[in-house]
């Protein structure tokens, strides 16, 4: 039976060695390559044609998210799992936006990582239980907050910042550049704030921002 071909992308050599040892113990998996940064991960993915890429977040050079986007563009059939120490919802959102099949925390027990690889290979998705629990808790908190607070009060500081900049006429790409975020992350913030405020287009957004005195009415004189 053919084994699941895995590419390891992480800038820490010892960590890669540890994961290689773990995977080597599985009869249905094999490591076909390693990469210490995003650019090398894209190149090695083209060379080795892996089934699954285990991608670290925060490697030097090309961002892991852009590397994932390029890998998925070149080889849509390759699955990417983010293997990271960051239990950060923004990173999770951005990872899913670029086509990742899962998000696994580095302090997860080894059986969870092995299960994540198999799930991704079969076309499924995987989320570390701690991240899933965090998302559920956050969702419940948002529901309770929405029941008690005005809609504007449910926005995060970043969502308010994006709201103001959108209402001032900045494009998503311009906001991403100013805030040093990816376009996909800004789009996610835009989607969330418009959902929370029940706003469906740019005109409504500007009108809301004026009503809440987030921006001033343009001087027509």
Detailed description of the structure:
The mean pLDDT is 87. The chain starts with a strand and ends in a 10-residue tail after the last helix. With 221 residues, it is an alpha/beta fold. α2 packs parallel to α3 (64-74), α7 packs across α9 and α8 packs across α9. β3, α3 and β4 (79-84) form a beta-alpha-beta unit. The chain folds into 2 domains: 4-131, Rossmann fold (3-Layer(aba) Sandwich), CATH 3.40.50; 149-211, Winged helix-like DNA-binding domain superfamily/Winged helix DNA-binding domain (Arc Repressor Mutant, subunit A, Orthogonal Bundle). The protein has helices spanning 13-24, 38-48, 64-74, 89-97, 110-121, 129-148, 157-167, 172-179, 183-197, 202-211, and strands at residues 4-9, 29-35, 52-55, 79-84, 102-105, 126-127. A 6-stranded parallel beta sheet has the order 2-1-3-4-5-6, sandwiched between helices.
């Amino acid at each position: 039976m053919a084994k699941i071909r895995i590419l390891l992308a992480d800038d820490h050599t010892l960590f890669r060695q540890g994961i290689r040892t773990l995977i080597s113990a599985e009869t249905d998996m094999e490591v076909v390559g390693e990469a210490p940064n995003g650019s090398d991960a894209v190149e090695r993915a083209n060379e080795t044609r892996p089934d699954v890429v285990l991608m670290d977040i925060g490697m030097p050079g090309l961002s892991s998210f852009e590397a994932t986007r390029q890998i998925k563009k070149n080889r849509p059939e390759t699955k990417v799992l983010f293997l990271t120490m960051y239990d950060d919802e923004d990173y999770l959102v951005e990872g899913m936006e670029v086509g990742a099949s899962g998000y696994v925390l580095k302090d997860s027990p080894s059986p969870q990582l092995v299960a994540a690889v198999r799930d991704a290979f079969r076309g499924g998705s995987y989320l570390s239980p701690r991240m899933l629990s965090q998302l559920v808790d956050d969702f419940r908190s948002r529901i309770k907050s929405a029941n008690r607070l005005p809609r504007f009060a449910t926005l995060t500081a970043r969502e308010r910042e994006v709201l103001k900049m959108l209402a001032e006429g900045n494009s998503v790409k311009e906001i991403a550049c100013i805030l040093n975020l990816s376009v996909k992350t800004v789009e996610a913030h835009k989607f969330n704030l418009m959902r929370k405020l029940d706003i469906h287009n740019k005109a409504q957004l500007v009108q809301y921002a004026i009503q809440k005195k987030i921006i001033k009415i343009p001087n027509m004189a």
